[in-house]
Amino acid sequence: MSRQLIAGNWKMNGRLAEARALADSLAAAPVARGDTVEIAVCPPFTAIHPVAERLGGDRAVALGGQDCHAAPGGAHTGDISAAMLADLGCRYVILGHSERRQEHGETSADVAGKAGAALDAGLVPIICVGETQAERDAGRALEVLHAQLEASLPEAGAAGIVLAYEPVWAIGTGRAATPDDIRSAHGALRADLAARLGNGGRSVRILYGGSVKPDNAAGILGLDDVDGALVGGASLDSESFLAIARAAAG
Ligand code: PEP
Fold first, then answer.
1. E strands along 103-241, which residues?
2. Atom of ligand 1 nearest to the CA of 166
3. Cα–Cα distance list, 157 to 48, 153, 154, 220 (Å)
4. What is the Cα–Cα distance from 234 to 10, expressed in whole angstroms?
5. What lines the ligand 1 site, CB under 6 Å?
6. Which is the most buried residue in 7, 101, 137, 168, by most CB within 10 A?
7. Which residues face 207 on adjacent strands?
8. Could you tell me the residue range of the domain that residue 208 belongs to?
9. Atom of ligand 1 nearest to the CA of 229
10. Alpha carbon 91 to chain centroid, angstroms
11. Digit-coded pLDDT (tens) for 193-212
């Protein structure tokens, strides 16, 4: 299994001055230069190039987008292709985040198309899946995760992706999933990956996302089948984000 991945999802935050300042403090951090954890940031589209410039050519912090279109180009006003993200130096692209599923009506089939485009452009899609509170209360969490995963995978399958388990009720609420919830969800997703890829499904990293903070990071990142974190709010503060990365580095 490769290094743990700590990916920051800046969402629609980070005007240029803020984005540059955040990039500067991350680039200077020793943990970002170590080899025990991989750090990535996913700024809004407008800040990707300025952040890339600040991170420098030998960048220790990888870059990602927060979405891409399924088509390689053409008449899609306001959209960004996977190849455009690759041009900017991105390695990752977050796909199927619950905010996009909810606010933009993205379906798992849409996510699968985008993931295929990302792989074609040489990007690693970070595919997000997660149940709502109502689905969890109805005892359907694992069933929902299984269905979302199966329908969100690109035609090529699960090879080359990163998966993120992001319970919708834990995102931005300050209420992270419990270790038992995480163990059960990641174990089920790992079993799905193993059935597809063999080798225990270990070739795909499974991140946990949902209210990861410096004070709960070590407990979450130390769980079996947790290979990193997708971090929203805490990724906007360099000290918090780096503390989470240090927890992953052990
Ligand atoms: C996210 O939006 O991917 C996320 C995990 O947000 P937060 O860390 O703020 O819960």
1. 124-129, 162-165, 205-209, 228-231
2. 5
3. 28, 6, 5, 27
4. 9
5. 9, 166, 171-172, 209-212, 230-234
6. 7
7. 164
8. 4-249
9. 5
10. 12
11. 999 999 999 999 999 999 99
**Dist CA 68 CA 114 (whole Å):** 6
Q: What is the pLDDT of residues 72-97, one digit of tens each?
A: 999 999 999 999 999 999 999 999 99
SS3 65: strand
Domain count of the fold of the chain: 1
Q: Is the pTM of this model over 0.85?
A: yes
pLDDT tens digits, residue range 3-18? 999 999 999 999 999 9
233 CA → ligand 1 middle, Å: 6
Sign of CA dihedral 88, 92, 95, 100: negative
Sign of CA dihedral 194, 195, 199, 204: negative
Give the CATH number, domain containing residue 186.
3.20.20.70
Name which residue sits closest to atom 7 of ligand 1, judged by CA.
Answer: 232
For residue 81, the CA-to-ligand 1 centroid distance in Å is 24
- With a cut of 70, say whether residue 128 has pLDDT above it: yes
Structure confidence at residue 1 (pLDDT) = 57
Q: Is 97 annotated as catalytic?
A: yes
- Is 166 part of the annotated catalytic residue set? yes
Say which amino acid occupies 49: H
Q: Whose CA is nearest to atom 2 of ligand 1?
A: 232
Of 97, 99, 131, 186, which one is the catalytic site residue? 97
**pLDDT of the residue at 2:** 77
